[in-house]
Amino acid sequence: MSGTTTTAPAGKPVRNTRAAAWRGLSARRVRALARAELTLLVRNRSALFIALLLPTVMAFSLKSTADQADLSGTGLSVGTTVLPGAVGMVLLFAVYSNLVGVYVGRREELVLKRLRTGEADDLEILGAAALPSVTIGIVQSVLLLTGGAVLLDVGAPPRPDLLAAGLLLGMLLMATLAAASSAFTRTTELAQLTPMPLMLATFAGSGLFIPLEIYPDRLAEFCRWLPMTPVMDLLRSGWTEQLSGPETLRALAVAVAWTALGGYAVRKRFRWEPRR
Amino acid sequence: MDAIEVEGLKRRYAGRATAGRRTGATGQGFEAVRDVSFSVREGEIFALLGTNGAGKTSTVEVLEGLARPSAGTVRVLGFDPYGERGFVRPRTGVMLQEGGFPSELTVAETATMWAGVTSEARPPQEALEIVGLGGRAGVRVKQLSGGERRRLDLALALTGRPEVLFLDEPTTGMDPEGRRDTAELVRNLRAEGTTVLLTTHYLEEAEQLADRLAIMQAGRIVASGTPEQVVAERPSRITFRLPRDVLPERLPLNVPAAVDGRTVAVRTHELQWALTELLVWARESGIVLEGLQARSASLEEAFLEIAEAGNRPESGPDRPGPGTGPGTGTGTGAGVGKGTGTTTGAGTGAGARTGVRA
Predict the structure, then answer these.
(1) What's the protein's topology in the membrane (chain B) (predicted)?
(2) pLDDT confidence of B256, banded at 50, 70, 90?
(3) Cross-chain Cβ contact A14/B2 below 8 Å
(4) Closest CA to A95 of A156, A165, A41
């Protein structure tokens, strides 16, 4: 059975025109996958509850912390602490933690493996899985910011561009880090646990509960290199304009660097099927 | 051009215990596929058989482009299914060995999602009708039976009207009706020119469906060809029980017979001749052979023989099972029976093996 015909070179003319039809990323495929993912999110009550309610609840607890904190000399008010913090909560709970569960769950159900047998590109598969959570997160952030601004009597942000940059970079960063974290999460049960380090580091070190300005200088400087700190700084600067030009660039660079690092980890370590 | 070409394929898994860490250059690992070569012609049904762990799925996954080969080359429709994924995927359909559906989606939602990632897709409902799942469209995947899940899997594999179809154990878990439907469907697809590569545990299925097949054992192909060719290399079998007062030594056969108590099993490449000799002897001796059975070699027997040989502890991985041809003919000696005269006494297989092992 040595039917070993010599292989034609890969660039040979293609008999079937469909082969030539494949070109880069496809919005149609992303839409189909994201739609299925949205259906699944809506049917997963506990994930939906965490994504929708927890950030709001946490925002209230942020407010009571901020009410008690001595913010004098930090240039912050209760409103400009709570509003960026609320977006931070959305990023952590509705996007990051939720997506770790999504990626691990789809992997363990062999959905990712199955999708890879089809025409969808890897990036389309991962991006489409994140799309519903990211979209919900953005809508939620806008609602929280608008509602919070009215309730806490905070005016319109003087630098909406920084606010938007923080929000969008934060979404990208969280989705990327969620995919990277899923590589280190063996089971869906552990998916509750593996997001904890980043969440705790963000609570403590990225100015979510406590403004970094209160910390000693050296500790504050270290905290500026944490993944979520630049995002929080950008969000806050939307109101406070606390970042200088170079500081803004640095914040952008650090956030992009963490995203790139996360992307690299995904490329190298992401698992498309369960360990057996 | 062959639709599928596999040349010297090897696939090695990283050592399980050290999967997370970097293993050194001498990493132990496990070689699931060891130097496999075969080709599947366009429009042909090719079956890959083997016991669990023989390397079938590991091989098929490389062909599907899910994994890179550790060594060797693989071409599907002339392309590298891993590196040139974008060119291959629109023309192939894949049915994985298990699952891969979100359990909370309905059948229709799953089919719609799949159609959305497939170019020139059949309408989802049409794909479901083909496999007989049209009436289950609104049911959640988690509520489907095992057989229904296989049907759904098949529906997705057919969605893109593939030129090459990979079916990894398509009928496992299906009831007999489902198996029959699937076999008929596969035959219809071949009639339309589809190339099909399937793995299966049901040997009669492979025997009926496959144009050609290969049997894998411990990562290697140990037999291949058309079902007829693979079977033709195997001896037929006669079994019966002797009466208590008849010693096996009285048997007239000059072919090797395995005796277990009163039960005798004869393996021969000359079924008609051996059977005639046996029956004539029995009649002339007035002996009743209880439970007499004579069976031509079947794929199942060929398969079991290969599997048994592979399980024998002393058979090293480099020894591909039993020899195929008639053995070196150490039959028990000249015919003892009366009458049958000078038939040439074709000595057969099993005798040779004892010699080799000793």
Answers:
(1) Peripheral membrane protein
(2) low
(3) no
(4) A41
Residue B336 has pLDDT above 80, yes or no: no
Inform me whether the C-beta atom of residue B109 falls under 8 Å from chain A C-beta atoms.
Answer: yes
Cα–Cα distance list, B195 to A134, B190, B211, B283 (Å): 42, 6, 11, 53
When scoring A117, A123, A269, A271 by the number of chain B Cβ atoms within 10 A, the one with the most, hence best to mutate, is A117
CB atoms within 10 A of CB A148: 22
Q: How far is A133 from chain B (nearest CA, A)?
A: 17
**Distances, alpha carbon B126 to alpha carbons A36, B11, B42, B105, B130, in Å:** 19, 37, 25, 18, 6
Please write the tens of the pLDDT for every residue from A57-79: 988 888 888 888 777 777 778 88
Cβ atoms of B212 and B190 within 8 Å: the answer is no
Whether chain A has a CB inside 8 Å of the CB on B42: the answer is no
B321 vs B222: CA distance, rounded Å: 7
- The model's pTM is 0.81
Tell the burial category of B60 from Cβ atoms under 10 Å away from its Cβ (0-12, 13-18, 19+). Answer: buried
Cα angle: A59, vertex A193, A120; to 5 degrees: 95
Query: Of chain B residues 153-172, which have a CB less than 8 A from chain A?
Result: 156, 160, 163
pLDDT digits (tens, 9 = 90+) for B49-96: 988 888 999 999 999 999 999 999 999 999 999 999 999 999 999 999
CA B232 to chain centre: 16
Tell me, yes or no, if A3 comes closer than 8 A to chain B by beta carbon: yes
Q: Find the CB nearest B105 among A1, A39, A275.
A: A39
State the sign of the Cα–Cα–Cα–Cα dihedral B38, B41, B43, B44.
negative
Strands lying side by side in the sheet with B164-168: B92-95, B164-168, B195-199, B45-50, B212-217, B220-225
CB atoms B225 and A120 under 8 Å: no
* pLDDT tens per residue, range A199-235: 999 988 998 877 787 889 999 999 999 999 999 999 9
ipTM tops 0.90: no
Please count the other Cβ atoms lying within 10 Å of the Cβ belonging to residue B142.
Answer: 11
- Select from A22, A32, A111 the Cβ nearest to the Cβ of B101: A111
Give the burial string for B144-168 (b: 16+ CB within 10 Å, else e). Answer: beebbbbbbbbbbbbbbbbbbbbbb
* Domains observed in chain B: 2-231+301-339 (3.40.50.300), 235-295 (3.30.70)
pLDDT above 60 (res B130): yes
Residue of A nearest to B229 (CA): A1
Cβ count within 10 A of residue A83:
29
Q: Which tokens sit at B350?
A: 């099993």
What is the DSSP secondary structure assignment for residue A219, as one 8-state letter?
A: H
